[in-house]
Amino acid sequence: MGRKARNKQAPPTPLGGPKHARNGSKGKRKAPSSTDERKKFKSAKGPAKVKQPRVFPKRRRDEDVEEEDEDSDLDEALQPGELSEEDEEVVKVKGRSKKAVEEDDEDEDEEVERGEARELVFSDSEDEGVNGGEAIPTGQHMFDLDEAPPSEEDEDEMLADEFGVDEEDEEMLGGDSDEEEEDSAFDSDSEEGDVVDDMDVDEAEADEEEDGDLQTNLEDDLTNEGYTLPAVDRGGEAEEHEHGTSLREVEGRMRWLVGVCAGKDDKLSSGVPGKSRSDHLLQLQHDIAVYFGYNVFLVGKLMKLFPVDEALAFFEANESPRPVTIRANTLRTRRRDLAQALINRGVTLEPIGKWSKVGLQVFESSVPVGATPEYLAGHYMLQSASSFLPVIALAPQPNERVLDMASAPGGKTTYISALLQNTGTVFANDSNKARTKSLTANVHRMGCKNVVVCNYDAREFPRVIGGFDRVLLDAPCSGTGVISKDQSVKVNKTERDFQLLSHLQKQLILCAIDSCSPTSSTGGYVVYSTCSVTVDEDESVVDYALRKRPNARLVETGLEFGVEGFRSFEGKTFHPSLNLTRRFYPHKHNMDGFFVAKFKVEKRTKAQANGKAKAETVDEAGVEIADIETDGPSAFTAAEDEEYIKESKRKHLLKTKGIKIQPKGGEKATAETGKGNGQIKVPKGKKLTEKRRVKA
Ligand SMILES: C[S@@+](CC[C@H](N)C(=O)[O-])C[C@H]1O[C@@H](n2cnc3c(N)ncnc32)[C@H](O)[C@@H]1O
């Protein structure tokens, strides 16, 4: 049987129920206790064990596969055959029998047999909401602010199925918000965070017992054993490591500082005499930066999101990979059949959780999961659990027209296509041409016949085409939710990056709303998502859209777990409906950090149409927003469409036949003007045949 998987991790509520609780790849983290949250961050008495920040290997190429013949059929290879007794053992998946997997799939089977599209059904069991199980990023954060062509290394990453894996994983893969704000690490009145609100308490207690002597007496730990605050004494300068201080010492002080700052204010008496709470927090920020290898700026930004003890849990979670998960492609197979086929190959897996009918979590494998015949035949996608969420929220219905504005490498596009059951149309757009190659490869591999791949800057929508029933904007972002997969985020982000990204996201979200048809009989929804946890890229963007597009309102995402979005942050108050948005965290949900918001787009009332919003040229971050209409959706007219079609035909002829159609009056036909006089210019040495003439 295959070796032990290294992707096992203690989810807040383990996948598949309590008996499947698993420890982290290094057995580091356990489910936190709801009784005394601070305890869980304490190590045994005495100096804490030093953990060196982990270095993660480069992602492997999993999507870089030959385009598949859509009809390719590996059924023969997939026939599970009769199971011997020995096989029967293999089929038992970590306490779950093959039968259990089958039972979980019963509904799904019905769905496939009836050929009827259905939204994924959420169980109402208590722990469903916290079932995590997530592994692979979606290349989300590989966004170049300057739209510079990607480096070769980036290319590799783009073509990959988004992994951040340790060595063994790599082998296996083959490849009320006011309160929230007050609770943030930098708030002097910080109270104990509600870190475990999504947890199954029984399970947490069980894990706590397991933790045994890891639980220590907080009061003892708060003893100041001669700690000082060197970063404060140096005037808060960003010197990252005092000379001669070992990581072990930094860790000891860091944990001590968490204890000091996490408690009610009187606990501060345990701190360094004469120093304020913010002094202690400043030192903590520096220590976290040194210990986990971040720049001090980013630590400060991320600490603001959480109560101080939860902040440490977040940083710790970023040190270990999330579980590996796959999505069964219902266009090619059923989850039960896929599970059986992979089990027969020595893969240990189980359903991802009751919230998904198509997800499987892979625990161990003796074969590379990214290179099995089933993978190559498009029976599944290596896809992080968190990246299922925006598509579940979008809930596309058969025969709809859906726009996926930033879609490469296609994890969500192919899921949308499957939920549409290959009906309707998915316009899968990405501005990065290189990335559209892996997108196209995935579309073919997964047997999606309802997808049109296009390559525009999404800010050109809806002028390119509009009137969609549903629009997904899985926006380019900083990737602060997927640090476990891309450790470079720790050091390469500056305040300017966040400003520019937020600016781009604001432009994109208006275009997304304007591309959605308010008169759609089945839809009229826009989903906005990022794999970043910063408020600049999440709530601020959504709040901006609500202000600029009064015809759009937030609705429930349909996701039954996740933390509510902030309704205020750092003195800014957002629209009260921001609580309908959902945040997902590695330390809470054992998934990549993610944000999901869902809008319903309605017809603009006369008042809205007349009372045009004043064009803003500068957003809150001081970034210029000059090129986006703020006074209403940009019109999409059939006449304009006509021009684009002509232009596209002209380019097609030029590319495929070498035939050049001169624009009218010598003017160059562009996507902007769409002008051309229909004159055919025959390339040298080529004769224009009648057939060509007619075609042209
Ligand atoms: C988060 S990733 C998309 C991941 C994809 N949705 C998936 O699930 O596989 C963001 C994508 O946005 C693309 N992008 C960046 N700026 C864009 C723009 N202005 N218009 C369209 N796409 C853009 C990037 O090339 C990148 O592929």
From TrEMBL:
<keyword id="KW-0539">Nucleus</keyword>
<keyword id="KW-0808">Transferase</keyword>
<feature type="binding site">
    <location>
        <position position="457"/>
    </location>
    <ligand>
        <name>S-adenosyl-L-methionine</name>
    </ligand>
</feature>
<keyword id="KW-0690">Ribosome biogenesis</keyword>
<dbReference type="InterPro" id="IPR054728">
    <property type="entry name" value="RsmB-like_ferredoxin"/>
</dbReference>
<feature type="region of interest" description="Disordered">
    <location>
        <begin position="656"/>
        <end position="696"/>
    </location>
</feature>
<dbReference type="InterPro" id="IPR023273">
    <property type="entry name" value="RCMT_NOP2"/>
</dbReference>
<dbReference type="GO" id="GO:0005730">
    <property type="term" value="C:nucleolus"/>
</dbReference>
<dbReference type="Pfam" id="PF01189">
    <property type="entry name" value="Methyltr_RsmB-F"/>
</dbReference>
<keyword id="KW-0694">RNA-binding</keyword>
<dbReference type="InterPro" id="IPR011023">
    <property type="entry name" value="Nop2p"/>
</dbReference>
<dbReference type="InterPro" id="IPR029063">
    <property type="entry name" value="SAM-dependent_MTases_sf"/>
</dbReference>
<feature type="domain" description="SAM-dependent MTase RsmB/NOP-type">
    <location>
        <begin position="314"/>
        <end position="602"/>
    </location>
</feature>
<dbReference type="GO" id="GO:0000470">
    <property type="term" value="P:maturation of LSU-rRNA"/>
</dbReference>
<dbReference type="GO" id="GO:0009383">
    <property type="term" value="F:rRNA (cytosine-C5-)-methyltransferase activity"/>
</dbReference>
<dbReference type="Pfam" id="PF22458">
    <property type="entry name" value="RsmF-B_ferredox"/>
</dbReference>
<feature type="region of interest" description="Disordered">
    <location>
        <begin position="1"/>
        <end position="247"/>
    </location>
</feature>
<dbReference type="InterPro" id="IPR018314">
    <property type="entry name" value="RsmB/NOL1/NOP2-like_CS"/>
</dbReference>
<dbReference type="InterPro" id="IPR023267">
    <property type="entry name" value="RCMT"/>
</dbReference>
<feature type="compositionally biased region" description="Basic and acidic residues">
    <location>
        <begin position="234"/>
        <end position="247"/>
    </location>
</feature>
<feature type="compositionally biased region" description="Basic residues">
    <location>
        <begin position="19"/>
        <end position="31"/>
    </location>
</feature>
<feature type="active site" description="Nucleophile">
    <location>
        <position position="531"/>
    </location>
</feature>
<feature type="compositionally biased region" description="Acidic residues">
    <location>
        <begin position="64"/>
        <end position="76"/>
    </location>
</feature>
<feature type="compositionally biased region" description="Acidic residues">
    <location>
        <begin position="145"/>
        <end position="223"/>
    </location>
</feature>
<keyword id="KW-0949">S-adenosyl-L-methionine</keyword>
<dbReference type="GO" id="GO:0003723">
    <property type="term" value="F:RNA binding"/>
</dbReference>
<feature type="compositionally biased region" description="Acidic residues">
    <location>
        <begin position="102"/>
        <end position="113"/>
    </location>
</feature>
<feature type="binding site">
    <location>
        <position position="430"/>
    </location>
    <ligand>
        <name>S-adenosyl-L-methionine</name>
    </ligand>
</feature>
<dbReference type="GO" id="GO:0070475">
    <property type="term" value="P:rRNA base methylation"/>
</dbReference>
<feature type="compositionally biased region" description="Basic residues">
    <location>
        <begin position="683"/>
        <end position="696"/>
    </location>
</feature>
<feature type="binding site">
    <location>
        <position position="474"/>
    </location>
    <ligand>
        <name>S-adenosyl-L-methionine</name>
    </ligand>
</feature>
<feature type="binding site">
    <location>
        <begin position="406"/>
        <end position="412"/>
    </location>
    <ligand>
        <name>S-adenosyl-L-methionine</name>
    </ligand>
</feature>
<dbReference type="InterPro" id="IPR001678">
    <property type="entry name" value="MeTrfase_RsmB-F_NOP2_dom"/>
</dbReference>
<protein>
    <recommendedName>
        <fullName>Nucleolar protein 2</fullName>
    </recommendedName>
</protein>
<dbReference type="InterPro" id="IPR049560">
    <property type="entry name" value="MeTrfase_RsmB-F_NOP2_cat"/>
</dbReference>
<comment type="similarity">
    <text>Belongs to the class I-like SAM-binding methyltransferase superfamily. RsmB/NOP family.</text>
</comment>
<keyword id="KW-0489">Methyltransferase</keyword>
